[in-house]
Amino acid sequence: xxxEFLFDEIKLEEFRKLHKIQPYKLKQxxxxxxxxxxxxxxxxxxxxxxxxxxxxxxxxxxxxKVDKVLDSEETTKIAFETTDGQIIESVIMxxxxxxxxxxxxxxxxxxxxxxxxxxxxxxxxxxxxxLWMKRNLDFKEILWQVLFANNFIKNKIGxxxxxxxNRIRNIVFMWMWxxxxxxxxxxIVLNDFFLPQNRLSLSKxxxxxxxxxxxxxxxxxxxxxLDVMLALSLHAPNQQLRDELIPSxxxxxxxxxxxxxxxxxxxxxxxxxxxEYIMIKWKTDTPELAKQLVKxxxxxxxxxxxxxxxxxxxxxxxxxxxxxIDEFKKILENWWLTVTVRNSLGREHKWACWQLGYEKxxxxx
Length: 365
Fold this sequence. Notes:
This protein has a 10-stranded mixed sheet, with helices on one face. Strands 1-2 form a two-stranded parallel ribbon. A two-stranded antiparallel sheet has the order 7-8. It folds into 2 domains: 4-60, Orthogonal Bundle (DNA polymerase, domain 1); 65-364, Aldolase class I (TIM Barrel), CATH 3.20.20.70. It has 11 helices and 14 strands. The protein is α/β, with parallel strands linked by helices.
């Protein structure tokens, strides 16, 4: 017997009628998965044993299995194996803060999700792009990354002081990656699972779509009024350097077209845009480039994240010196731009931005 996806509402309603189950039981099932972070039917103890057995026989929650989990205090990297044998990765990031009494407490948890098997963009500085894209993920495969992460966090950390479960607060579409080239599946998982109150009930302000300038996708966000947060992998303030860093996307969607699209996005949504700018030694970090970035963004409603390059042996590029990053930041702030130098969690394990897939590259080499 072929099992059905648990959240196929038509199939679930047919199941309910066939077994003469009260409608409120479906709400209990949703609560068990989305609020109590249970992903195995036998753990759903608010349901009867008979109902759990019936659900187990007819439905599945997991569209693939976990291949590997690498865990540390700051990050957890999870490798999933899809039903067709592909490997994708997600990373949980734990943001800690120190109280006045020097006690370390968990502030929030972020999950970076994959939307594709590897990546079609081929950025000069990124390991993942070297593996070539295999296919888009469907919405179930994106959803499962979040459900598994919440279950993992529940088992690892447990409850907060207020007796509620620790769970994912922020989701970023930026791992294996280009979410705007998998727009329909991204849209389904957002509208049907991430945002509704009876599902994961995440805030729009806590969901970020990171894109390398796929202009038609940005226009679709406007048309569909999908006003979650938007982060642009800018990385270069001029066309020539951007063509060098991101040769697959930059010539197709040039800088002047992107700026025009961004102006339209800001006008229609009123959302502030996050611009991600990579700091690579001797390539993206000069004072002249900082001045060009000022000229490009000074009248935009934006926040600039300077991201020190996360080095790896597969690519011969180096992280900018701290003094160089500080000087670059100062130039931007002198023109009243809002800037943060981002701390990349997991970089020592090759789990940070532009490092995912390093183990596979190492095997190929």
